[in-house]
């Protein structure tokens, strides 16, 4: 018997399925589009990838993003979310996509000022990345509905103005490569989620802003900053 009430397992709604996808872990790759790496002051060469983590309950499908405390510079980062139905260790690149359940549009909201301080001090990024409701997410689209999107426009408008735009084929590390690489260091499992990086154009949002994520083949994800 638990000595406290069991925490609720975070779940994502699946489009047209009437079911939910329970989330186990959230891995996020950094600087996975060359233009974004450049705008953040880094070389876009194909160095080994690096990852940080958000918390499963950071994923939020409410359509609202409450502006967080302790920050005056919160940035948007539009991303593709990859949801795994199975996992393992040392997964070959050639079979990595067999472990994917589906995909969703997502935002990696970032307290950029706090992340910048952490970078300068050589500290982890979680204070800038893993705060409450920091990953607004659209409905999951199963692979049998959407396939494995490896190209197509990914963009973000804020108040009707285009802020970010790229193509998923511009990822430095492709989805199957991210899965394989992560499995060399972690035992992946059903319920794991990967955020696959953002194109260039990241920037600040303010209370009252309306963000709209557009990814080819996905329903728009509209999020209001409150």
What integer value in Å does the Rg equal?
A: 17 Å
What's the mean pLDDT score? 94
Shape: globular
First and last CA, distance: 39 Å
What is the level 1 CATH name? Answer: Alpha Beta
Strand order of the largest sheet: 4-3-15-8-9-12
Given as residue ranges, the uncertain stretches (5+ residues, pLDDT < 50) are: none
The overall number of domains is 1
Taken as a percent bin, the fraction of beta residues is 25-35%
User: How many DSSP H or I helices?
Assistant: 5
Summarize the structure in words.
This protein has helices at residues 34-39, 112-120, 126-129, 143-146, 175-185, and strands at 11-13, 20-22, 25-29, 51-54, 59-60, 64-65, 74-76, 78-84, 100-107, 110-111, 135-136, 141-142, 153-158, 161-167, 192-195, 203-204, 210-215, 221-225. The chain is of the alpha+beta class. The chain has a single domain (11-225), classed as Alpha-Beta Complex (Fumarylacetoacetate hydrolase, domain 2), CATH 3.90.850. The strands form five sheets. The chain has a six-stranded mixed β-sheet with strand order 4-3-15-8-9-12. Strands 6-18-17-13-14 form a five-stranded mixed β-sheet, with no helix packed on it. It is globular, with a radius of gyration of 17 Å. The termini are far apart. 39% of the residues are buried.
């Amino acid at each position: 018997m638990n000595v406290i009430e069991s925490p609720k397992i975070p779940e994502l709604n699946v489009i047209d399925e009437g079911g939910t996808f329970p989330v186990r872990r959230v891995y996020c790759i950094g600087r996975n589009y060359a233009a974004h790496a450049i705008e953040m002051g880094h070389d876009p060469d194909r160095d080994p990838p690096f990852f940080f983590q958000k918390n499963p309950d950071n994923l939020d499908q409410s359509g609202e993003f409450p502006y967080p405390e302790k920050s005056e510079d919160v940035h948007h980062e539009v991303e593709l979310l990859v949801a795994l139905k199975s996992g393992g260790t040392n997964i070959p690149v050639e079979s990595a996509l067999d472990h994917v359940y589906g995909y969703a549009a997502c935002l990696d909201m970032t307290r950029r000022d706090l992340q910048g301080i952490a970078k300068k001090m050589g500290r982890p990024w979680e204070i800038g990345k893993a705060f409450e409701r920091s990953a607004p997410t659209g409905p999951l689209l199963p692979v049998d509905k959407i396939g494995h999107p490896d190209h197509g426009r990914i963009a973000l408008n804020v108040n009707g103005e285009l802020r970010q735009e790229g193509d998923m084929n511009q990822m430095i590390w492709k989805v199957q490569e991210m899965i394989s690489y992560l499995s060399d260091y972690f035992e992946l499992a059903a319920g794991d989620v990967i955020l696959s990086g953002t194109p260039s154009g990241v920037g600040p949002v303010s209370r009252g802003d309306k963000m709209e994520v557009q990814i080819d083949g996905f329903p728009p994800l509209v999020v209001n900053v409150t």
